[in-house]
Amino acid sequence: MLFGVLLGSFFGATPGLGGNIGVALLIPFVFGMDPYLGLGFLLSLHAVVHTAGSIPGILFAIPGTGPTVATIVDGYPMTQQGRAGQAMGAQLAASALGGVIGAVILAALIPVLQPIALAMGSGEMFMLIVVGLTFVVIISRESIPKGILTALLGLGLATVGLDPQTGVGRFVFGQLWLWDGIHIITIVLGIFGLAELIHLGARGGGGRICEVDVGDMEIGWGQLWDGTLDVFRNWWLSLRTAVIGTFVGIIPGLGGDAATWICYGHAAQSEKNAENFGKGDVRGVIAVETANNSKEGGALLPTLIFGIPGSSGMAILMGAMLVLGIVPGPQMLTEGLDMVWFLIFILVISNIFGALLLYPISGYLAKLAYVRGSMLIPTVLVLVAVGAFTIRGQWQGLILTFVFGFLGYGMKKWNYPRAPLLLGFILGPMAEDYLHKALGTMGPAFLTRPLVAVLLIIAIFSLALSIRGEYGGTNKMQRESK
Amino acid sequence: MKRKGETTFNFLLLIVFGAGIFFSNSWSADARLLPMAISIGGAVLSAGLLLSRLRQKPINEDEEELSEHTETNQAEKNEVKTTTRSEMIIILWILAFLGVLLVLGFWLAVAMFLPVFLMVFGSESVKTAVIYTAMVWIVIYGIFHLGIGIQLYGGILGLSFL
User: Fold this and answer.
1) Lowest CB count within 10 Å: A216, A222, A239, A337, which one?
2) A477 pLDDT exceeds 50?
3) Shared domain check, B106 and B51
4) pLDDT above 70 for A478
Protein backbone atom coordinates (compact mmCIF):
# COMPACT_ATOMS: atom_id res chain seq x y z
CA MET A 1 0.00 0.00 0.00
CA LEU A 2 2.86 2.36 0.85
CA PHE A 3 4.48 1.56 -2.50
CA GLY A 4 1.16 2.25 -4.21
CA VAL A 5 0.92 5.61 -2.44
CA LEU A 6 4.48 6.48 -3.56
CA LEU A 7 3.78 5.53 -7.16
CA GLY A 8 0.42 7.32 -7.10
CA SER A 9 2.12 10.51 -5.90
CA PHE A 10 4.60 10.25 -8.77
CA PHE A 11 1.98 9.59 -11.45
CA GLY A 12 -0.25 12.35 -10.07
CA ALA A 13 2.47 14.99 -9.88
CA THR A 14 3.78 14.32 -13.40
CA PRO A 15 1.72 16.29 -15.93
CA GLY A 16 0.35 14.15 -18.70
CA LEU A 17 0.56 10.88 -16.80
CA GLY A 18 -2.19 10.77 -14.19
CA GLY A 19 -3.72 7.90 -12.28
CA ASN A 20 -5.39 6.23 -15.24
CA ILE A 21 -2.05 5.67 -16.98
CA GLY A 22 -0.54 4.58 -13.65
CA VAL A 23 -3.19 1.95 -12.96
CA ALA A 24 -3.23 0.83 -16.61
CA LEU A 25 0.55 0.42 -16.64
CA LEU A 26 0.57 -1.57 -13.42
CA ILE A 27 -2.34 -3.94 -14.08
CA PRO A 28 -0.03 -6.52 -15.71
CA PHE A 29 2.14 -6.55 -12.58
CA VAL A 30 -0.74 -7.49 -10.26
CA PHE A 31 -1.86 -10.39 -12.45
CA GLY A 32 -1.70 -13.56 -10.36
CA MET A 33 -1.39 -11.65 -7.08
CA ASP A 34 -3.65 -12.22 -4.09
CA PRO A 35 -6.83 -10.17 -4.90
CA TYR A 36 -6.63 -8.22 -1.63
CA LEU A 37 -2.97 -7.39 -2.19
CA GLY A 38 -3.31 -6.52 -5.87
CA LEU A 39 -6.44 -4.41 -5.58
CA GLY A 40 -5.20 -2.77 -2.38
CA PHE A 41 -2.03 -1.73 -4.21
CA LEU A 42 -3.89 -0.31 -7.23
CA LEU A 43 -6.57 1.45 -5.19
CA SER A 44 -3.99 3.09 -2.91
CA LEU A 45 -2.19 4.32 -6.05
CA HIS A 46 -5.44 5.62 -7.52
CA ALA A 47 -6.59 7.25 -4.27
CA VAL A 48 -3.61 9.61 -3.91
CA VAL A 49 -3.14 10.58 -7.56
CA HIS A 50 -5.17 13.76 -7.18
CA THR A 51 -3.50 14.68 -3.88
CA ALA A 52 -0.14 14.91 -5.63
CA GLY A 53 -1.68 16.09 -8.90
CA SER A 54 -2.53 19.47 -7.41
CA ILE A 55 1.07 20.31 -6.52
CA PRO A 56 2.30 21.25 -10.04
CA GLY A 57 -1.03 23.02 -10.52
CA ILE A 58 -0.49 25.21 -7.47
CA LEU A 59 3.18 25.87 -8.28
CA PHE A 60 3.22 26.25 -12.06
CA ALA A 61 -0.45 26.25 -13.16
CA ILE A 62 0.18 22.85 -14.76
CA PRO A 63 -2.29 20.32 -13.38
CA GLY A 64 -0.98 16.80 -12.89
CA THR A 65 -4.44 15.33 -13.48
CA GLY A 66 -7.72 16.51 -15.03
CA PRO A 67 -9.79 16.92 -11.85
CA THR A 68 -7.06 19.03 -10.22
CA VAL A 69 -7.54 21.78 -12.82
CA ALA A 70 -9.91 23.72 -10.57
CA THR A 71 -7.21 23.95 -7.88
CA ILE A 72 -5.23 26.29 -10.15
CA VAL A 73 -7.92 28.98 -10.05
CA ASP A 74 -7.02 29.96 -6.49
CA GLY A 75 -3.89 27.88 -5.85
CA TYR A 76 -1.70 29.52 -8.48
CA PRO A 77 -2.58 33.11 -7.48
CA MET A 78 -1.64 32.11 -3.90
CA THR A 79 1.78 31.02 -5.17
CA GLN A 80 2.15 34.33 -7.00
CA GLN A 81 1.40 36.09 -3.73
CA GLY A 82 4.07 34.10 -1.87
CA ARG A 83 1.56 31.76 -0.18
CA ALA A 84 2.44 28.52 -1.97
CA GLY A 85 3.11 26.78 1.37
CA GLN A 86 -0.29 27.77 2.71
CA ALA A 87 -1.97 26.58 -0.50
CA MET A 88 -0.20 23.23 -0.32
CA GLY A 89 -0.91 22.81 3.39
CA ALA A 90 -4.60 23.44 2.74
CA GLN A 91 -4.52 21.19 -0.31
CA LEU A 92 -2.94 18.25 1.51
CA ALA A 93 -5.14 18.52 4.59
CA ALA A 94 -8.29 19.00 2.50
CA SER A 95 -7.38 16.05 0.26
CA ALA A 96 -6.83 13.76 3.25
CA LEU A 97 -10.00 14.96 4.96
CA GLY A 98 -12.03 14.66 1.75
CA GLY A 99 -10.71 11.15 1.11
CA VAL A 100 -11.58 10.01 4.63
CA ILE A 101 -15.06 11.59 4.54
CA GLY A 102 -15.70 10.03 1.11
CA ALA A 103 -14.78 6.61 2.45
CA VAL A 104 -16.93 7.05 5.56
CA ILE A 105 -19.93 8.10 3.46
CA LEU A 106 -19.30 5.12 1.18
CA ALA A 107 -19.45 2.85 4.22
CA ALA A 108 -22.62 4.51 5.49
CA LEU A 109 -24.38 4.46 2.12
CA ILE A 110 -23.90 0.83 1.24
CA PRO A 111 -27.31 -0.25 2.59
CA VAL A 112 -29.27 2.60 0.99
CA LEU A 113 -27.49 2.99 -2.34
CA GLN A 114 -29.72 1.22 -4.79
CA PRO A 115 -32.82 3.51 -4.72
CA ILE A 116 -30.68 6.66 -4.95
CA ALA A 117 -28.75 5.49 -7.99
CA LEU A 118 -31.85 4.25 -9.77
CA ALA A 119 -33.64 7.58 -9.28
CA MET A 120 -31.15 9.34 -11.56
CA GLY A 121 -32.26 8.95 -15.17
CA SER A 122 -30.86 10.70 -18.27
CA GLY A 123 -33.15 13.69 -17.77
CA GLU A 124 -32.04 14.19 -14.18
CA MET A 125 -28.39 13.83 -15.18
CA PHE A 126 -28.82 16.42 -17.94
CA MET A 127 -30.44 18.87 -15.58
CA LEU A 128 -27.76 18.29 -12.93
CA ILE A 129 -25.16 19.27 -15.56
CA VAL A 130 -27.20 22.36 -16.45
CA VAL A 131 -27.06 23.33 -12.77
CA GLY A 132 -23.27 22.88 -13.01
CA LEU A 133 -23.13 25.11 -16.10
CA THR A 134 -24.85 27.96 -14.27
CA PHE A 135 -21.69 28.22 -12.17
CA VAL A 136 -20.06 29.89 -15.21
CA VAL A 137 -21.60 33.14 -14.02
CA ILE A 138 -20.19 32.70 -10.54
CA ILE A 139 -16.64 32.04 -11.74
CA SER A 140 -16.73 34.94 -14.25
CA ARG A 141 -16.93 37.77 -11.78
CA GLU A 142 -14.48 39.92 -13.76
CA SER A 143 -16.84 40.03 -16.74
CA ILE A 144 -19.92 37.87 -17.07
CA PRO A 145 -20.28 38.32 -20.90
CA LYS A 146 -16.62 37.35 -21.39
CA GLY A 147 -17.07 34.39 -19.04
CA ILE A 148 -20.11 33.16 -20.96
CA LEU A 149 -18.22 33.65 -24.23
CA THR A 150 -15.28 31.53 -23.06
CA ALA A 151 -17.69 28.91 -21.68
CA LEU A 152 -19.30 28.76 -25.13
CA LEU A 153 -15.85 28.37 -26.65
CA GLY A 154 -15.23 25.46 -24.26
CA LEU A 155 -18.57 23.89 -25.17
CA GLY A 156 -17.68 24.30 -28.85
CA LEU A 157 -14.26 22.71 -28.39
CA ALA A 158 -15.94 19.78 -26.68
CA THR A 159 -17.94 19.06 -29.84
CA VAL A 160 -14.77 18.49 -31.89
CA GLY A 161 -14.52 14.84 -32.98
CA LEU A 162 -16.94 12.12 -33.94
CA ASP A 163 -20.44 12.74 -32.65
CA PRO A 164 -21.28 9.70 -30.47
CA GLN A 165 -24.96 9.91 -31.45
CA THR A 166 -24.72 10.18 -35.23
CA GLY A 167 -21.13 9.27 -36.08
CA VAL A 168 -20.70 12.56 -37.95
CA GLY A 169 -17.19 14.03 -37.75
CA ARG A 170 -17.60 17.54 -36.35
CA PHE A 171 -14.86 20.14 -36.89
CA VAL A 172 -12.41 17.36 -37.83
CA PHE A 173 -11.50 18.80 -41.27
CA GLY A 174 -10.60 15.35 -42.55
CA GLN A 175 -7.96 14.89 -39.84
CA LEU A 176 -7.97 11.40 -38.35
CA TRP A 177 -6.26 12.51 -35.14
CA LEU A 178 -9.20 14.81 -34.36
CA TRP A 179 -11.75 11.99 -34.43
CA ASP A 180 -11.29 11.34 -30.71
CA GLY A 181 -11.78 15.02 -29.95
CA ILE A 182 -9.44 17.25 -28.00
CA HIS A 183 -8.06 15.97 -24.71
CA ILE A 184 -8.71 18.10 -21.62
CA ILE A 185 -5.01 17.97 -20.64
CA THR A 186 -4.02 19.40 -24.05
CA ILE A 187 -6.21 22.42 -23.38
CA VAL A 188 -5.16 22.82 -19.75
CA LEU A 189 -1.45 22.52 -20.48
CA GLY A 190 -1.90 25.23 -23.09
CA ILE A 191 -4.26 27.79 -21.62
CA PHE A 192 -2.84 27.54 -18.12
CA GLY A 193 0.68 26.03 -18.19
CA LEU A 194 2.06 27.55 -21.37
CA ALA A 195 0.20 30.84 -20.95
CA GLU A 196 1.75 31.28 -17.50
CA LEU A 197 5.20 30.48 -18.93
CA ILE A 198 4.77 33.25 -21.53
CA HIS A 199 3.65 35.58 -18.75
CA LEU A 200 6.71 34.64 -16.70
CA GLY A 201 9.05 34.94 -19.69
CA ALA A 202 7.65 38.37 -20.57
CA ARG A 203 9.16 39.61 -17.32
CA GLY A 204 12.63 38.60 -18.53
CA GLY A 205 15.06 35.90 -17.42
CA GLY A 206 15.13 37.15 -13.83
CA GLY A 207 11.36 36.90 -13.40
CA ARG A 208 9.88 34.49 -10.86
CA ILE A 209 6.46 32.91 -10.40
CA CYS A 210 6.18 34.48 -6.97
CA GLU A 211 5.88 38.24 -7.41
CA VAL A 212 6.55 39.22 -3.80
CA ASP A 213 9.52 38.67 -1.52
CA VAL A 214 8.83 36.32 1.32
CA GLY A 215 11.40 35.10 3.82
CA ASP A 216 12.49 31.47 3.70
CA MET A 217 10.82 30.68 7.02
CA GLU A 218 7.43 31.78 5.77
CA ILE A 219 7.47 29.30 2.89
CA GLY A 220 8.19 26.34 5.12
CA TRP A 221 6.33 24.68 7.93
CA GLY A 222 4.69 27.88 9.15
CA GLN A 223 2.74 28.34 5.94
CA LEU A 224 2.00 24.62 5.60
CA TRP A 225 0.60 24.54 9.12
CA ASP A 226 -1.40 27.68 8.50
CA GLY A 227 -2.89 26.12 5.36
CA THR A 228 -3.69 22.94 7.26
CA LEU A 229 -5.48 24.90 9.98
CA ASP A 230 -7.44 26.78 7.31
CA VAL A 231 -9.17 23.52 6.43
CA PHE A 232 -10.40 23.17 10.00
CA ARG A 233 -11.15 26.90 10.39
CA ASN A 234 -13.46 26.45 7.38
CA TRP A 235 -14.75 23.12 8.67
CA TRP A 236 -18.32 23.68 7.52
CA LEU A 237 -17.17 24.36 3.94
CA SER A 238 -14.81 21.35 4.05
CA LEU A 239 -17.60 19.09 5.24
CA ARG A 240 -20.13 20.39 2.71
CA THR A 241 -17.84 20.07 -0.31
CA ALA A 242 -16.65 16.63 0.79
CA VAL A 243 -20.26 15.43 1.00
CA ILE A 244 -21.22 17.04 -2.35
CA GLY A 245 -18.08 15.57 -3.96
CA THR A 246 -18.97 12.08 -2.73
CA PHE A 247 -22.50 12.28 -4.10
CA VAL A 248 -21.35 13.64 -7.47
CA GLY A 249 -18.81 10.80 -7.54
CA ILE A 250 -21.58 8.26 -7.05
CA ILE A 251 -23.30 9.36 -10.28
CA PRO A 252 -21.67 7.34 -13.06
CA GLY A 253 -20.32 9.34 -15.96
CA LEU A 254 -20.30 12.71 -14.24
CA GLY A 255 -16.68 12.26 -13.23
CA GLY A 256 -14.21 14.02 -11.02
CA ASP A 257 -13.89 17.14 -13.15
CA ALA A 258 -17.55 17.93 -12.63
CA ALA A 259 -17.31 17.24 -8.88
CA THR A 260 -14.49 19.74 -8.36
CA TRP A 261 -16.11 22.50 -10.42
CA ILE A 262 -19.52 21.99 -8.84
CA CYS A 263 -17.94 22.28 -5.38
CA TYR A 264 -15.90 25.31 -6.40
CA GLY A 265 -19.04 26.98 -7.73
CA HIS A 266 -20.92 26.07 -4.57
CA ALA A 267 -18.20 27.60 -2.39
CA ALA A 268 -18.02 30.78 -4.49
CA GLN A 269 -21.79 31.10 -4.32
CA SER A 270 -22.35 30.33 -0.66
CA GLU A 271 -19.32 31.77 1.15
CA LYS A 272 -18.91 35.33 2.46
CA ASN A 273 -16.53 37.73 0.63
CA ALA A 274 -16.92 35.64 -2.50
CA GLU A 275 -15.23 38.36 -4.60
CA ASN A 276 -11.89 36.95 -3.37
CA PHE A 277 -12.45 33.66 -5.18
CA GLY A 278 -10.15 33.35 -8.17
CA LYS A 279 -7.70 35.81 -6.65
CA GLY A 280 -5.93 33.46 -4.24
CA ASP A 281 -8.61 32.52 -1.73
CA VAL A 282 -7.65 29.47 0.32
CA ARG A 283 -11.33 28.45 0.47
CA GLY A 284 -11.20 27.88 -3.30
CA VAL A 285 -8.40 25.35 -2.79
CA ILE A 286 -10.18 23.68 0.13
CA ALA A 287 -13.50 23.31 -1.72
CA VAL A 288 -11.86 21.72 -4.75
CA GLU A 289 -9.49 19.43 -2.87
CA THR A 290 -12.01 17.96 -0.45
CA ALA A 291 -14.29 17.17 -3.42
CA ASN A 292 -11.39 15.84 -5.45
CA ASN A 293 -10.60 13.04 -3.03
CA SER A 294 -14.05 12.45 -1.53
CA LYS A 295 -15.53 11.71 -4.97
CA GLU A 296 -13.27 8.64 -5.21
CA GLY A 297 -15.20 7.09 -2.32
CA GLY A 298 -18.43 7.91 -4.12
CA ALA A 299 -17.17 6.59 -7.47
CA LEU A 300 -16.20 3.28 -5.88
CA LEU A 301 -19.79 2.67 -4.86
CA PRO A 302 -21.48 2.15 -8.28
CA THR A 303 -18.32 0.42 -9.52
CA LEU A 304 -18.46 -2.23 -6.82
CA ILE A 305 -22.19 -2.65 -6.36
CA PHE A 306 -23.60 -2.19 -9.88
CA GLY A 307 -20.52 -2.79 -12.00
CA ILE A 308 -21.02 0.73 -13.42
CA PRO A 309 -17.75 2.65 -13.10
CA GLY A 310 -18.23 6.07 -11.55
CA SER A 311 -15.27 7.54 -13.44
CA SER A 312 -12.70 6.67 -16.12
CA GLY A 313 -10.22 5.77 -13.36
CA MET A 314 -12.75 3.45 -11.81
CA ALA A 315 -13.37 1.86 -15.22
CA ILE A 316 -9.69 0.93 -15.42
CA LEU A 317 -9.76 -0.22 -11.81
CA MET A 318 -12.76 -2.38 -12.64
CA GLY A 319 -10.68 -3.98 -15.39
CA ALA A 320 -8.06 -4.74 -12.75
CA MET A 321 -10.75 -6.29 -10.52
CA LEU A 322 -11.73 -8.67 -13.31
CA VAL A 323 -8.06 -9.55 -13.87
CA LEU A 324 -7.84 -10.40 -10.17
CA GLY A 325 -10.99 -12.50 -10.28
CA ILE A 326 -13.27 -10.04 -8.49
CA VAL A 327 -16.61 -9.63 -10.24
CA PRO A 328 -18.34 -6.35 -9.28
CA GLY A 329 -22.10 -6.49 -8.80
CA PRO A 330 -24.84 -6.67 -6.16
CA GLN A 331 -23.30 -9.89 -4.81
CA MET A 332 -20.47 -7.74 -3.43
CA LEU A 333 -22.89 -6.71 -0.66
CA THR A 334 -23.30 -10.33 0.41
CA GLU A 335 -20.47 -12.62 -0.66
CA GLY A 336 -17.86 -9.91 -1.17
CA LEU A 337 -18.61 -7.68 1.81
CA ASP A 338 -15.14 -8.34 3.29
CA MET A 339 -13.58 -7.00 0.12
CA VAL A 340 -15.81 -3.90 0.21
CA TRP A 341 -14.77 -3.10 3.78
CA PHE A 342 -11.14 -3.79 2.92
CA LEU A 343 -11.30 -1.28 0.05
CA ILE A 344 -12.94 1.33 2.29
CA PHE A 345 -10.12 0.83 4.78
CA ILE A 346 -7.54 1.19 1.99
CA LEU A 347 -9.15 4.46 0.87
CA VAL A 348 -8.96 5.92 4.37
CA ILE A 349 -5.39 4.85 5.11
CA SER A 350 -3.92 5.71 1.69
CA ASN A 351 -5.43 9.20 1.77
CA ILE A 352 -3.84 9.85 5.15
CA PHE A 353 -0.55 8.24 4.04
CA GLY A 354 -0.52 10.27 0.82
CA ALA A 355 -0.86 13.58 2.65
CA LEU A 356 1.70 12.62 5.32
CA LEU A 357 4.16 11.57 2.63
CA LEU A 358 3.82 14.85 0.75
CA TYR A 359 3.97 17.16 3.81
CA PRO A 360 7.74 16.95 4.38
CA ILE A 361 8.57 17.68 0.75
CA SER A 362 5.94 20.37 0.15
CA GLY A 363 7.97 23.08 1.88
CA TYR A 364 10.86 22.43 -0.49
CA LEU A 365 8.60 22.22 -3.52
CA ALA A 366 7.08 25.59 -2.63
CA LYS A 367 10.53 27.17 -2.96
CA LEU A 368 10.46 26.33 -6.66
CA ALA A 369 8.23 29.39 -7.03
CA TYR A 370 11.33 31.47 -6.25
CA VAL A 371 13.54 29.87 -8.90
CA ARG A 372 14.56 32.26 -11.68
CA GLY A 373 12.38 32.17 -14.77
CA SER A 374 15.41 31.51 -16.99
CA MET A 375 15.85 28.13 -15.28
CA LEU A 376 12.20 27.33 -14.77
CA ILE A 377 10.86 28.20 -18.23
CA PRO A 378 12.82 25.64 -20.29
CA THR A 379 12.27 22.89 -17.71
CA VAL A 380 8.53 23.43 -17.48
CA LEU A 381 8.38 23.91 -21.25
CA VAL A 382 9.91 20.45 -21.72
CA LEU A 383 7.45 18.97 -19.19
CA VAL A 384 4.52 20.63 -20.97
CA ALA A 385 5.72 19.21 -24.29
CA VAL A 386 6.22 15.73 -22.80
CA GLY A 387 2.76 15.87 -21.22
CA ALA A 388 1.14 17.11 -24.44
CA PHE A 389 2.71 14.29 -26.43
CA THR A 390 2.27 11.40 -24.00
CA ILE A 391 -1.52 11.88 -23.66
CA ARG A 392 -2.18 10.38 -27.07
CA GLY A 393 1.26 9.94 -28.59
CA GLN A 394 0.49 12.36 -31.44
CA TRP A 395 2.74 15.19 -32.60
CA GLN A 396 -0.34 17.15 -33.59
CA GLY A 397 -1.19 17.30 -29.89
CA LEU A 398 2.02 19.25 -29.36
CA ILE A 399 1.03 21.90 -31.90
CA LEU A 400 -2.49 22.08 -30.48
CA THR A 401 -1.14 22.61 -26.95
CA PHE A 402 1.02 25.49 -28.16
CA VAL A 403 -1.95 27.02 -30.01
CA PHE A 404 -3.97 26.83 -26.79
CA GLY A 405 -0.98 28.36 -24.99
CA PHE A 406 -1.19 31.49 -27.14
CA LEU A 407 -4.98 31.53 -26.81
CA GLY A 408 -4.62 31.26 -23.02
CA TYR A 409 -2.13 34.10 -22.92
CA GLY A 410 -4.49 36.28 -24.96
CA MET A 411 -7.29 35.42 -22.54
CA LYS A 412 -5.10 36.23 -19.55
CA LYS A 413 -3.89 39.49 -21.05
CA TRP A 414 -7.31 40.76 -22.09
CA ASN A 415 -9.15 39.55 -18.98
CA TYR A 416 -11.14 36.71 -20.47
CA PRO A 417 -11.68 34.25 -17.58
CA ARG A 418 -10.14 30.87 -18.42
CA ALA A 419 -11.97 28.66 -15.92
CA PRO A 420 -15.38 28.88 -17.70
CA LEU A 421 -13.77 27.48 -20.86
CA LEU A 422 -12.82 24.35 -18.94
CA LEU A 423 -16.21 24.11 -17.26
CA GLY A 424 -17.90 24.26 -20.67
CA PHE A 425 -15.48 21.76 -22.15
CA ILE A 426 -15.95 19.25 -19.34
CA LEU A 427 -19.70 19.47 -18.95
CA GLY A 428 -20.58 20.00 -22.63
CA PRO A 429 -20.26 16.43 -23.96
CA MET A 430 -22.03 14.98 -20.93
CA ALA A 431 -24.90 17.46 -21.32
CA GLU A 432 -25.26 16.65 -25.02
CA ASP A 433 -25.15 12.90 -24.40
CA TYR A 434 -27.77 12.94 -21.64
CA LEU A 435 -29.98 15.38 -23.54
CA HIS A 436 -30.05 13.07 -26.58
CA LYS A 437 -30.80 10.07 -24.34
CA ALA A 438 -33.55 11.92 -22.45
CA LEU A 439 -35.15 13.18 -25.67
CA GLY A 440 -34.81 9.75 -27.23
CA THR A 441 -36.61 7.95 -24.41
CA MET A 442 -39.23 10.48 -23.28
CA GLY A 443 -39.11 13.40 -25.71
CA PRO A 444 -39.51 16.91 -24.28
CA ALA A 445 -41.78 15.39 -21.61
CA PHE A 446 -38.69 14.48 -19.60
CA LEU A 447 -38.86 18.05 -18.26
CA THR A 448 -42.02 17.13 -16.36
CA ARG A 449 -40.28 14.50 -14.22
CA PRO A 450 -40.33 15.74 -10.60
CA LEU A 451 -36.58 15.63 -9.96
CA VAL A 452 -35.87 17.22 -13.36
CA ALA A 453 -38.28 20.05 -12.60
CA VAL A 454 -36.72 20.63 -9.18
CA LEU A 455 -33.22 20.74 -10.69
CA LEU A 456 -34.43 23.13 -13.42
CA ILE A 457 -35.86 25.48 -10.81
CA ILE A 458 -32.58 25.30 -8.88
CA ALA A 459 -30.65 26.16 -12.08
CA ILE A 460 -32.89 29.14 -12.89
CA PHE A 461 -32.76 30.48 -9.33
CA SER A 462 -29.01 29.93 -9.10
CA LEU A 463 -28.46 31.87 -12.34
CA ALA A 464 -30.86 34.67 -11.45
CA LEU A 465 -29.46 35.12 -7.95
CA SER A 466 -25.87 35.14 -9.20
CA ILE A 467 -26.55 37.72 -11.92
CA ARG A 468 -28.62 39.83 -9.54
CA GLY A 469 -25.93 39.60 -6.88
CA GLU A 470 -23.21 40.49 -9.36
CA TYR A 471 -24.90 43.43 -11.07
CA GLY A 472 -26.66 44.50 -7.89
CA GLY A 473 -23.27 44.65 -6.19
CA THR A 474 -21.73 46.57 -9.09
CA ASN A 475 -24.57 49.10 -9.14
CA LYS A 476 -24.28 49.54 -5.38
CA MET A 477 -20.54 50.19 -5.70
CA GLN A 478 -21.18 52.71 -8.48
CA ARG A 479 -23.78 54.51 -6.37
CA GLU A 480 -21.43 54.57 -3.38
CA SER A 481 -18.54 55.92 -5.46
CA LYS A 482 -20.82 58.70 -6.80
CA MET B 1 -2.30 49.21 -27.52
CA LYS B 2 -4.07 46.95 -25.04
CA ARG B 3 -7.44 48.08 -26.36
CA LYS B 4 -6.39 47.41 -29.95
CA GLY B 5 -5.15 43.93 -29.02
CA GLU B 6 -8.34 43.13 -27.16
CA THR B 7 -10.46 44.27 -30.09
CA THR B 8 -8.44 42.04 -32.42
CA PHE B 9 -8.81 39.12 -30.01
CA ASN B 10 -12.55 39.70 -29.84
CA PHE B 11 -12.72 39.84 -33.63
CA LEU B 12 -10.84 36.52 -33.86
CA LEU B 13 -13.38 34.93 -31.52
CA LEU B 14 -16.17 36.26 -33.74
CA ILE B 15 -14.49 34.62 -36.74
CA VAL B 16 -14.16 31.33 -34.84
CA PHE B 17 -17.85 31.28 -33.92
CA GLY B 18 -18.80 32.40 -37.43
CA ALA B 19 -16.80 29.50 -38.85
CA GLY B 20 -18.62 27.23 -36.38
CA ILE B 21 -21.98 28.29 -37.86
CA PHE B 22 -20.68 27.82 -41.41
CA PHE B 23 -19.26 24.32 -40.89
CA SER B 24 -22.03 22.95 -38.67
CA ASN B 25 -24.65 23.98 -41.23
CA SER B 26 -23.73 21.02 -43.43
CA TRP B 27 -24.29 18.31 -40.77
CA SER B 28 -27.44 16.38 -39.97
CA ALA B 29 -29.97 18.00 -37.63
CA ASP B 30 -29.02 15.83 -34.63
CA ALA B 31 -25.30 16.36 -35.10
CA ARG B 32 -25.51 20.14 -35.52
CA LEU B 33 -28.02 20.85 -32.72
CA LEU B 34 -25.47 21.73 -30.02
CA PRO B 35 -22.57 23.08 -32.17
CA MET B 36 -24.95 25.37 -34.08
CA ALA B 37 -26.60 26.67 -30.90
CA ILE B 38 -23.18 27.30 -29.31
CA SER B 39 -21.80 28.99 -32.42
CA ILE B 40 -24.80 31.28 -32.84
CA GLY B 41 -24.70 32.22 -29.15
CA GLY B 42 -20.94 32.81 -29.28
CA ALA B 43 -21.15 34.86 -32.49
CA VAL B 44 -23.92 37.08 -31.11
CA LEU B 45 -22.10 37.61 -27.81
CA SER B 46 -18.70 38.29 -29.38
CA ALA B 47 -20.29 40.66 -31.92
CA GLY B 48 -21.98 42.48 -29.04
CA LEU B 49 -18.71 42.76 -27.12
CA LEU B 50 -16.92 43.94 -30.25
CA LEU B 51 -19.51 46.62 -30.94
CA SER B 52 -19.43 47.86 -27.37
CA ARG B 53 -15.62 48.12 -27.58
CA LEU B 54 -15.74 49.98 -30.89
CA ARG B 55 -18.32 52.39 -29.50
CA GLN B 56 -16.08 53.17 -26.50
CA LYS B 57 -13.11 54.00 -28.72
CA PRO B 58 -13.71 57.68 -29.59
CA ILE B 59 -14.13 58.68 -25.91
CA ASN B 60 -10.92 56.95 -24.89
CA GLU B 61 -9.06 58.41 -27.85
CA ASP B 62 -10.02 61.91 -26.69
CA GLU B 63 -8.77 61.10 -23.24
CA GLU B 64 -5.53 59.81 -24.69
CA GLU B 65 -5.07 62.96 -26.77
CA LEU B 66 -5.63 65.15 -23.75
CA SER B 67 -3.09 63.36 -21.64
CA GLU B 68 -0.64 62.53 -24.41
CA HIS B 69 1.92 65.08 -23.33
CA THR B 70 2.00 64.18 -19.67
CA GLU B 71 5.06 62.37 -18.35
CA THR B 72 3.00 59.60 -16.75
CA ASN B 73 1.38 58.79 -20.03
CA GLN B 74 4.73 58.66 -21.78
CA ALA B 75 6.13 56.33 -19.11
CA GLU B 76 3.10 54.08 -19.47
CA LYS B 77 3.55 53.99 -23.25
CA ASN B 78 7.21 53.04 -22.85
CA GLU B 79 6.26 50.28 -20.40
CA VAL B 80 3.69 48.90 -22.83
CA LYS B 81 6.31 48.91 -25.60
CA THR B 82 8.83 47.07 -23.40
CA THR B 83 6.22 44.49 -22.33
CA THR B 84 5.16 43.87 -25.93
CA ARG B 85 8.80 43.41 -26.93
CA SER B 86 9.39 40.97 -24.04
CA GLU B 87 6.25 39.06 -24.98
CA MET B 88 7.36 38.77 -28.59
CA ILE B 89 10.80 37.55 -27.49
CA ILE B 90 9.47 34.76 -25.25
CA ILE B 91 6.84 33.76 -27.81
CA LEU B 92 9.57 33.46 -30.46
CA TRP B 93 11.64 31.32 -28.07
CA ILE B 94 8.67 29.03 -27.46
CA LEU B 95 7.94 28.79 -31.20
CA ALA B 96 11.62 28.01 -31.81
CA PHE B 97 11.42 25.17 -29.28
CA LEU B 98 8.31 23.81 -30.96
CA GLY B 99 10.01 24.00 -34.36
CA VAL B 100 13.15 22.20 -33.18
CA LEU B 101 11.00 19.64 -31.37
CA LEU B 102 8.93 18.83 -34.44
CA VAL B 103 11.97 18.50 -36.68
CA LEU B 104 14.50 16.79 -34.40
CA GLY B 105 12.36 15.11 -31.76
CA PHE B 106 12.51 15.31 -27.97
CA TRP B 107 15.97 14.13 -27.17
CA LEU B 108 17.89 16.30 -29.61
CA ALA B 109 15.56 19.28 -29.11
CA VAL B 110 16.06 19.24 -25.33
CA ALA B 111 19.83 18.83 -25.71
CA MET B 112 20.04 21.70 -28.20
CA PHE B 113 17.40 24.15 -27.03
CA LEU B 114 18.01 24.20 -23.28
CA PRO B 115 21.67 25.33 -23.26
CA VAL B 116 21.04 27.99 -25.92
CA PHE B 117 18.00 29.29 -24.03
CA LEU B 118 19.82 29.30 -20.70
CA MET B 119 22.83 31.15 -22.11
CA VAL B 120 21.08 33.64 -24.39
CA PHE B 121 17.75 34.33 -22.66
CA GLY B 122 18.80 33.58 -19.11
CA SER B 123 22.39 34.88 -19.33
CA GLU B 124 23.58 31.78 -17.47
CA SER B 125 27.19 30.61 -17.72
CA VAL B 126 28.18 27.87 -20.16
CA LYS B 127 28.97 25.55 -17.24
CA THR B 128 25.57 26.07 -15.59
CA ALA B 129 23.77 25.68 -18.91
CA VAL B 130 25.53 22.40 -19.76
CA ILE B 131 25.12 20.85 -16.28
CA TYR B 132 21.47 21.91 -16.02
CA THR B 133 20.65 20.61 -19.50
CA ALA B 134 22.32 17.28 -18.73
CA MET B 135 20.32 16.98 -15.51
CA VAL B 136 16.99 17.73 -17.19
CA TRP B 137 17.78 15.39 -20.08
CA ILE B 138 18.77 12.53 -17.78
CA VAL B 139 15.71 12.96 -15.55
CA ILE B 140 13.32 13.06 -18.53
CA TYR B 141 15.05 10.09 -20.15
CA GLY B 142 15.18 8.14 -16.90
CA ILE B 143 11.54 8.66 -15.99
CA PHE B 144 9.80 8.51 -19.34
CA HIS B 145 11.98 6.30 -21.48
CA LEU B 146 13.58 3.89 -19.02
CA GLY B 147 11.06 4.04 -16.17
CA ILE B 148 7.71 4.09 -17.92
CA GLY B 149 8.83 2.94 -21.33
CA ILE B 150 7.13 5.76 -23.24
CA GLN B 151 8.55 6.38 -26.70
CA LEU B 152 8.70 10.16 -26.99
CA TYR B 153 8.33 11.92 -30.32
CA GLY B 154 11.29 11.27 -32.62
CA GLY B 155 10.83 14.23 -34.95
CA ILE B 156 10.21 14.57 -38.68
CA LEU B 157 13.72 13.38 -39.29
CA GLY B 158 12.89 10.26 -37.30
CA LEU B 159 15.70 10.51 -34.82
CA SER B 160 14.06 8.36 -32.15
CA PHE B 161 17.25 6.38 -31.95
CA LEU B 162 17.26 6.11 -28.16
Assistant:
1) A216
2) no
3) no
4) no
